[in-house]
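FAQ: What does the model actually see?

It sees only this:
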Amino acid sequence: MSTAAPAILCDQPQTGSDPVFREPWEAQAFAMAVTLHQQGLFTWPDWAQALAEQIASAQARGEADLGDTYYHHWLAALEKLVAARAGSSMEELARYQHAWRHAAERTPHGQPIDLEPGDLEIETAKPA
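And it is asked to produce this:
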């Protein structure tokens, strides 16, 4: 069995023979955090605190850490920071998350996912 990175990830940084990112979305989440920091939305100490709080919250809920959750925590912390710093709102983030999920569901496997205007027009269920 080959341990080589899939072709879509072949140019990513590696630690030894292991890729730094398991999936393209992880690299994209990383890049978004770096870009938002560079644009002044938050400082690195703010980021470290938000990520630590996210991980601690997951641990307090008893979520298992199987080594595949780090970037899920990364993305959740990023979403909270963006909403807290008025870069967006949690409602807007949920709207886009729902739109991307809808776009992914209508896209054939192996094809690029394109967000279309109609994806954003679909109403998301409001929490009760």
